[in-house]
Amino acid sequence: MPGKMVVIFGATNILWTVFVASQAFKIETTPESRLLAQIGDSVSLTCSTTGCESPSFSWRTQIDSPLNGKLRNEGTKSILTMDPVHFENEHSYLCTAMCGSRKLEKEIQVEIYSFPKDPEIHLSGPLEAGKPITVKCLVPDVYPFDRLEMDLLKGNHLMKNQEFLDDVDRKSLEIKSLEVTFTPVIEDIGEVLVCRARLNIYEMDSVPKERETTKVMQVYISPKNTVISVNPSTRLQEGGSVTMMCSSEGLPAPEIFWSKKLDNGNLQLLSGNATLTLIAMRMEDSGIYVCEGVNLIGKDRKEVELIVQEKPFSVEISPGPQIAAQIGGSVVLTCGVMGCESPSFSWRTQIDSPLSGKVRSEGTESTLTLSPVGVENEHSYLCTVTCGRKKLEKGIQVALYSFPRDPEIELSGPLVDGNPITVSCKVPHVYPLDRLEIELLKGETVLKKKDFLEGVDKKYLEIESLEMTFIPTTEDTGNVLVCQARLQIDEMDFEPKQRQSTQTLYVNVVPKDIQLTAFPSESVKEGETVIISCTCGNVPETWIILKKKAETGDTVLKSIDGMYTIRKAQLEDAGVYECESKSKSGSQLRSLTLDVKGRENNKDYFSPELLMLYCTSSLIIPAIGMIIYFARKANMKGSYSLVDAQKSKV
Question: Which residues cross the membrane (predicted)?
Fold first, then answer.
């Protein structure tokens, strides 16, 4: 009995221990159930247990998508870190803890948002009174859109409110904006534009739910009511002075600019002050002066015309309003005054470049000597004469030219009938190029004409040329090539304005129509005589060279008047014979092949002709012998009888 009590008591202790242990195993999460995280931040979810010395942990999302985080287990803790937080982390995360056979699970809801910056206010342009302007209020990188609400106010007046409920399903960082167009007035100066944005996430107090930006309105007024005052008058004498004042209304206050209207309508800026004073006025200072009031919004202008009247003295400049000067030569410009006893002189160029000359003034005359004249002297020179407070200016244009030599005709080679030849007509050291014209003629016929208008900006001496390619014929012999060059400067008085060169043509002829023949034939028999003849019919002065071609080298044959005779042709005389007909203009070749046939066998010695000749000679020679024999007999006897001769023979 006591043994049974011990067993019952032990079993009871074990059951009580298991019960107590099961009651102590718990799971907790930090944060407890929900986390609101800023996109781009780093956040951690912590899962911890009590009542278990060595728990095991696992994490998953409610929809079993990737965790998109980094997991770290430390004893009774498990930490899931998301760095940086992004859209893929917006889930319900489940932490599962195992302690032996016991299992516990807890959920944390992660929600994300983005509301990092204050709104921005943008204007479509400067605020100008009376002109519509568009104001844009924008919130950058915001999420979730369906919780966003925006207000645009002018002072305390709500101009527009906007929500973005239609974007509830889109997951992205976007710039959301609100626009209002209104017309500013002067009374708006100093008013404040307010752009206010709210992210309505009421359940979380730690989030900045509202941001705003303000902009103080500065309203502008374009310049207007521009006024000019002139003292002493708009009509002035040479040497006098004038002061002009200008004012203009606007907000901000306009800047004042003075300009002079040029002959081409453009404006030449003179001053950036409200007051413009002109002293020592000259006649060329006459004209229309423009005052402009300018601010950020616009401009307004007013014009006034000044007339500067001439004083009664005169200036003359010689040799005249224009002079033509040869480059490398010397020119003297003289400035004289009438009506002033003690004038003072000054010289300048139209563009205020260096004079590059020597000035000498004496009494009522001043001279400017340019020597030697170069391209740097091609200017309009102005002589300014001051007489007391009076000034006069007279100009003279120095125009330069260079046309020192006749053109040069060059041929690319000798003139040969039928061969293209290039003729070049060169004009050396010519200026100005844009006035040059070159013409190439053959007799009275113009072959080519060229001008050089593209050389208008070239300020140096050049050799210009015209080239022409043509095919000469024998009919051109005796014709004359003419190269004419003209410098088309009619307004300049110099000589000569035209130069030319000529060249008489002599057209050479290249040998042709060569005939190379073998007489009696190009195929002969061994032992026969062959005459090889070469003739050229079109050129009187030619050299004819006959050669026999061979691999070891050509053999020049001794021909007479183009003929070469082979007596008793041998087999080694067979081969290629070449005739070269040469003249001063060129050469031409012809060739033929001579075939010499040898005796093939003894049958050739007993051909029908030879056999007939042999038979005939066999009959004739005995007959001649008999005649001689009987003639001698007749001489002995004093007579001759054929019958007796026959009898005695028998």
Answer: 611-631
